[in-house]
Amino acid sequence: MSPTWIDIDDEALRETIRFSGARSEDEAVNLALRVYAARHRSRAETMHERNRAEAAAKRRAPED
């Protein structure tokens, strides 16, 4: 990992530590980033699958 200096919302960090059980601020921030990325990756994958299913359904539908 590379060190990065950023300003972090203190209350958000405290809540992340409290809810996650992280043992350090670094752990809490990295966990929050991983959770955020996973949530959005999952959402993007779901949308991609939905679009594929809709396109396949259109290909199978008889023309009017």
Automatic annotation (TrEMBL):
Pfam families: VapB_antitoxin
InterPro entries listed in its UniProt record: VapB_antitoxin
Region annotated Disordered, chain positions: 42-64
Compositional bias annotation for Basic and acidic residues: 43-64
Top-level taxon: Bacteria
Name listed for the protein in its UniProt record: DUF2191 domain-containing protein
Natural source organism: Nocardiopsis alba (strain ATCC BAA-2165 / BE74)
